[in-house]
Amino acid sequence: MPPFHLPTLLLSLSVYLWGTMACEMENSTTEEGTGSLLNANIKWPVQRVVSIEGDLVLGGMFNIHERSDAYTCGKVLEQSGVQAMEAMLYTVDMVNNNPTLLPNITIGVHILDSCDRDTVGLEQAVDFIRGSMNIVGGSRYKCADGSVPTVDYKKIVGVVGCSSSVTSIQVANLLKLFTLPQISYWSTSPELSIKKRFPYFSRTVPSDEFQARAIMDIVTTFNWTYISVVYEDSNYGQQGLSQLKAEAERRGICIYLALKFPRDSQMASSECFNDIMKDLGTKDTVRVVIVYGTDQDAAELMRAAKRANTAGRYVWIGSDGWSSRQSPAQGQEDELEGAITIQPMAQEIEGFDEYFASLNPATHRRDPWLTELWEEHFQCKWPGSMLTPFNYHFDSVNKTCDTNVSINAHTGYKQDGQLQFIVNAVLAFAHALDDVHRTYCKNVSGLCEDMRRVTGRELLEFIRNVSFTGITGQKFKFSAVGDGPPRYKILNYQQVSDGVYDYVPVGSYSEGLDVNVSMIRFRLDNESYPDSFCSKECGIGEMKSLQNEASCCWICIPCQKYHILVDEFTCEECEQGKIPDEMKKQCLNVSLHYLQHSSPWAIAPMTFSIFGIVSTTVILSIFIHNAETPVVKASGRELSYVLFAGIYCCFFMTFVLISKPSKFVCGLQQVGVGFCFSMCYTALLTKTNRIARIFNRAKRSAKRPSYISPKSQLLITLGLVGVQILISAILLFTAPPIAKPDFPSREQGQLVCSAVLDGSFMIGLAYPIALFILCTFYAFKTRKIPEAFNEAKFIGFTMYTICIIWLAFVPIYYTTASNIEVRTATICFTISMSAAVTLACIFLPKVHIIVLHPEKNVKLRRMTCARRQSFYSLQGTSETTATELALARRRSKMNMCPNCGAPIPLAVAKSLVDKAMKSKDKEERNAAAGGRNRRAVKFKMPIDGENVVASSSSRRNPLGTTVRKRGAFRSRKFTPPESSTIENKESVEEAAPPTIEINIARTPEKSKEETQVAPVEEQQPPGETDTEPGKPDLPKSSPPHDSPVASVHEEHEISVCMELSTAGPSGSGSSTTTEEVIANHHPPVDLDANSESQTETEEDTQTNCVATNTTAKDRDYRMALQEEIKFAPEEESGFPLEEKSDINCTPELSHIIQEATC
Q1: Is 600-856 in CATH node 1.20.1070.10?
Q2: pLDDT value at position 609?
Q3: What pLDDT shows up at residue 667?
Q4: Where is the G-protein coupled receptors family 3 profile domain (predicted)?
């Protein structure tokens, strides 16, 4: 051993003197106290020591006696005291008997009692210091006969101990000063793992850090959320509580109460534990109590529980300080039943039970406490033993121990479950010393000189690196901080049979908890464990609202409808498109719906569209097959084909709209709807605009309007459609179509195209809507044009109907936004119905003519133009008088005949009335003013500059007067009356009135050959002729050039045409009507110019002379006047009849006629 420095020597001497004085003071105090309470002959406590010589000595410190409120040391402890000490002796004997381990080297022992007090343990540790310094002396120890022993202190190389962590900490602080290694077998405080404070401390048990994890894993397994902790006020208890709090907080477990009891103080009395039990009973729902302490503390707590009559109320969870010990259960088995304890993994020492059963105080003299154990175990007085506070009453009753019995299983013996750690501590020293011997002594047998000089620091290095197989067969090795491997055994204190209790292994803990829950039993009559909580767990979809700082006391608040529990204390709303699951723990995606082809909402519009496609195909086939017929040509073939394409497109859009939304489908929807409508409306707009321009131009000029040819119309249509294509391309570039989810409600999702959501769909329809409005405007503007242009009326009807359809569609579309099936079906029907209306209104009337009335599908445009030398005779079907014309003028200034509805030239009508009113004949004026007397008048009106001369025929009226007047014409506009179409053609023919003859002068200079048109044959009523009775027919020759009428003509040329019947563009089957037209004061027009080239075009067909219908009411009125009004036949004009022939009206001629009549 190396020489000590002076400071170290002085410190050692001071420790020795302090320990001696303290011991003497304690002994004197104890004796005084006991003298007043017990027999004066009792000396207690008595310091005893187990000292066995050897080449190397190991110190040992055990809790041979328990703590006591009245004495420094209490009763002897069997398991944690005597058994533990004997385990060390048993192991030392085994090592000394092993020839391969420390050959020729004997291990001695020096074992002391700490009485489970840290102060006593520190005092006893002074002997280890003295032994390490080989100091001889001391009279504190007594032999069995009371003599003072002679102690020859050998060098102590290390200490095995202590039991409790608080004692180990005190002893370790002392031993480190002298570099003396220490190995504890039961001290588990995490503080001892701090090697800066305890560099020479090691242990064969794991730290309480792992024990706290194992305990909390058990608590979590049984879902206990609210617990209490009872711990000793020591480093062991405080460190254990700290570890428990950390683990509990990490797991969300709350500690309701943390109650401590004193250690090594007179305050640790029964009253202290009684108060603890009272505090534990303040909350009925807390049923789990963790106890951190020694077996003595646990025993005292169980006695207090028994006094409080709480058997079966609490579940006790024990730390390794009292796990598997019998002392807490002695007399309190019912209170401890169901307890779950934790102890480091250990196995019973094989052969130790036989060894312990062989011990007897009479023969086993090396154990000075064996006699006390015998007396405590058998409750007797050993013969010749000294009196103690615990055996004197046996002496008074003469209860002497039987020296022939032994402590075994039959007499209540049970091996302590943690003796393996004591064995491992001794073996660790033995193997470390063996390694030192092998290192320093080489092949030298026995203790060599080099080994004697080995310091405690060097020995510590060998101890930390030691590795061996223990007596139980398990491999042992210290951790980096000198702790044992973290292996625990889980025990359950059960009533295995009626009145028989024992600790039953139910699981283990190494890297995690492995426990058989089915083996754990709370009580024999009630195997299930009670709950331990502050507040009941919340139900599904309820969050916890903490009432105080304790995280286990709360009130339950239901989460809102579309919220989930993010954690126990937070509800969070699911994002759009997600809804909570049934447990309200996660958000699930809302299923996206779209219109399936099998849905009735898809079958109905698809069926309608298929019918529309088939119908369009049939009608288109008819049109193509009859492409060269007048009806088809008059309808404008090129624009009709464009319209057919738009109708097809509209019907096919149904299948696009019903398809599952995708990027491609959405693109077709975004572009297709607007494109289809643009094709339809541009074709219709071009048609209506063409008609409007023709009639508007005719009012101002006879010049043909521009861009009315088929080629021009087609180019205009394609240009307008091109605008829609450009708009669609811009939309596709700026707002690329994608299919995205839409959620009308939280629980309803639908897959729709982005164009529907961002409004770009309506942007694409803005242009077709504008075309629709313009087309409707032109249709309304041309609603009153002549019947030959009835297609404009049909277009108007189409526009009005589509407008009604879309007005009905808009509210339905926006009110069904949450139902994608209804909404899609609605827009499909709207588009298809728009196409169907267009098809029906525009093309069905033409198909009706083509299929059912092919005789009307002819080009019937006969113009009745009577050419004579200097006059044209215009044939009319109207019966009229000055009285009727005056009445018409007074009513509404009409320029239409009130009887037949045929237009009367404004100049002629006004002239007739004015001249009759200025007549000198009273009867004539009365007739013109609507008088009772009427006369038939025949007018011949040659043009004379600004004047027209009207003369009566030679036939006299009933009064015998003749009218010859001149008058100037002033142009006025008359509003035509409304007239209805005659339903029966034959009735008109039967009621055809006689001819009114108006001769209009023409210059005779025109000599070129012109087309002669035959006059219309009038159907006279029965019994009437073209001439008056008794008057001969006049020859059909030209009047002489010196005619007084002809002499006043100026050189003007007027073309007058009359369309008798037509199957024109309207395609209607109306009855034949005659339209009287006169053009006044216009430049000459060549009837033959370009007549052939203009005949074959469709636009010429739409510029025919205007035809009107005669209503049945007008017809009846006309027939009633026939008896009073007589008109001379054409032959009475005195002019020869020219040969008549059919001619075609030129466009220019038609414009002139239109302007004159309208």
Answers
A1: yes
A2: 92
A3: 87
A4: 601-866
Residue 958, φ and ψ in degrees, nearest 5: -60, -20
CATH architecture of 542-589: Ribbon (2.10)
Q: Positive or negative, the Cα torsion across 180, 184, 187, 189? A: positive
Q: Locate 520 and state its tokens.
A: 């754990």
Q: Who's near 367: CB < 8 A, 6+ residues apart? A: 50, 82, 85, 86, 89, 359
- The secondary structure element, H or E, covering residue 170 is helix 165-175
Alpha-carbon Rg for the chain, nearest whole angstrom, is 66
User: Which residues touch 106 (CB under 8 Å, ≥6 apart)?
Assistant: 53, 54, 55, 56, 96
Output the DSSP codes for 551-615.
TT-EEEEEPPTTEEEEETTEEEEPPTTEEE-TTSSSEEEPPEE---TTSHHHHHHHHHHHHHHHH
Token readout for 21 is: 């004085």
Count of other CB atoms within 10 angstroms of residue 722: 12
Q: What pLDDT score was predicted for residue 984?
A: 36
Tokens read off for 349: 């020492």
> Do 6-205+418-477 and 542-589 fold alike per CATH?
no
Residue 868's pLDDT is: 34
How many helical (H) and strand (E) elements, i.e. helices and strands, does the chain have?
A: 32, 31
Q: Rounded to whole angstroms, how far apart are CA atoms 1092 and 1144? A: 8
Instruction: Encode burial over 945-981: b for 16+ CB neighbours within 10 A, e otherwise.
Output: eeebbbbbbeeebeeeeebebebebeeeebebbebeb
DSSP 83: I
Q: 58 - beta bridge partners?
A: 109, 158
Residue type, 939: F
Mean pLDDT by 10 residues, the chain (1158 residues): 41 45 35 41 80 93 86 87 95 94 93 90 86 50 57 76 90 93 92 93 91 92 92 86 91 90 65 91 92 88 92 92 86 91 89 93 89 89 84 73 87 89 96 94 87 91 93 89 91 89 92 89 84 86 80 86 88 90 89 84 91 93 88 82 91 90 87 88 84 71 72 86 88 84 83 76 82 85 63 82 87 77 87 91 88 78 36 35 48 43 48 58 57 38 37 37 37 38 36 36 37 36 39 39 34 32 35 32 33 35 35 41 34 33 38 38
Bond from prior residue into 649 cis (ω within 30 degrees of 0): no
Instruction: Report d(CA 385, CA 383) in Å as an integer.
Output: 6
pTM of the model: 0.49
In contact, 1153 and 1077? CB cutoff 8 Å: yes
Give the angle 158-162-167 at the CA atoms, nearest 5°: 120
Architecture of domain 208-347+487-519: 3-Layer(aba) Sandwich (3.40)
Domain boundaries, the chain: 6-205+418-477, 208-347+487-519, 359-405, 542-589, 600-856, 860-1158
Q: CB within 8 A of 526, min separation 6: which ones?
A: 312
Residue 179 backbone class (left: φ over 0; alpha: ψ -120 to 50; beta: rest): left
Q: Please, what is the angle between helix 600-625 and helix 820-852, to 10°?
A: 20
Q: What pLDDT is recorded for position 549?
A: 64
Closest by CA to 1063, choosing from 1094, 1101, 1095, is: 1101
Task: Calculate the CA dihedral of residues 44, 45, 50, 56 and round it to 10 degrees.
Answer: -140
Tokens 């020296």: give the residue.
Answer: 403
**What gap in Å lies between CA 441 and CA 436, rounded to an integer?**
8
| Distance in Å from the first CA to the final CA of the chain | 146
Chain position carrying tokens 């510029």: 1103
Question: How many alpha carbons lie under 13 Å from residue 855 in its C-beta half-sphere?
Answer: 1
Q: Which fold has domain 6-205+418-477?
A: Rossmann fold (3.40.50)
| Residue-level pLDDT at 1089 | 31
Contacts of 1044 (CB under 8 A, 6+ apart): none
